[in-house]
Amino acid sequence: MRLYQFFCLSKTFFCLCNFQSVVQLDLHWTMARPGTRIIQAKLVLVGDMGTGKTSLVLRFVKGQFFHHQEATIGAAFFTQILSVSEATVKFDIWDTAGQERYHSLAPMYYRGAAAAIVVYDISTMDTFARAKKWVQELQKQGNPKLVMALVGNKSDLDSKREVQVEEGEEFAQENGMLFMETSAKTAENVNELFYEIAKKLATASPPNPSGVTLNHEETQERRGKLFCCIG
Ligand SMILES: Nc1nc2c(ncn2[C@@H]2O[C@H](COP(=O)(O)OP(=O)(O)OP(=O)(O)O)[C@@H](O)[C@H]2O)c(=O)[nH]1
Ligand SMILES: [Mg+2]
């Protein structure tokens, strides 16, 4: 099993961004490893409602899972730091709402992103069709360097499976995406997913993908830099 250096800095802002309401603000500060190259990357999750986007992020950031996770309103923001051998990656994570009525807000969240996770639920074929539409939309937004991952979540529901692994794999391959089946419930492949994205961002050859900022030293804390939800 791979050793993940979450050497966290688990600095988590959790705020609902349907506009300006802060639900939870939870800051823990730790220093990143001295001398490590630091990459700050905006990551967005999109996909149909109920596919498990919020659950995946909560599993990754807080190690939590809720059987009755509430639907996201607008979007929620989280941060997490992950060290891979090449760099320390600071993820600014935008977890978008899957309900159709929020669709028009999505560009605000994926614009300038370095990475996008498109999530479907392996037990519902409709969500896979929706994921394909999301991939088309992201491709149209015109950042050829966007690191994209296709994720079939709820792999624990194998007995109810409607989307075969091969279908997901094939579509991801055709579109140059990472592919993984995950379970936010059991935690299967959740850390692995973010690890693979971090590796891909860290090894991206220059010029850097947009949405990524490189710092060679930890020069500043971002305490005053809450750009959503407050004020
Ligand atoms: N069995 C199982 N249930 C899951 C998994 N991930 C999420 N769920 C459940 O699926 C439901 C929806 O999860 P959410 O994380 O809210 O889904 P979402 O994509 O964020 O939904 P929206 O915010 O409406 O877009 C919740 O009841 C979760 O408990 C999983 O891996 N396995
Ligand atoms: Mg959600």
UniProtKB/TrEMBL annotation:
Keywords annotated in UniProt: GTP-binding, Lipoprotein, Membrane, Nucleotide-binding, Prenylation, Protein transport, Transport
SMART domains: RAB, RAN, RAS, RHO
Membrane topology designation: Lipid-anchor
Subcellular location field: Endosome membrane; Prevacuolar compartment membrane
Keyword Nucleotide-binding: yes
InterPro entries on file: P-loop_NTPase (IPR027417), Small_GTP-bd (IPR005225), Small_GTPase (IPR001806)
Any GO molecular function: GTPase activity
Highest taxon in the source lineage: Eukaryota
TM region positions: none
Gene Ontology cellular component list: endosome membrane
Biological processes, Gene Ontology terms: protein transport; vacuolar transport
Keyword field contains Lipid biosynthesis: no
Family stated for the protein in its record: Belongs to the small GTPase superfamily. Rab family.
Protein name (database record): Ras-related protein RHN1-like
Organism from which the protein derives: Gossypium darwinii (Darwin's cotton)
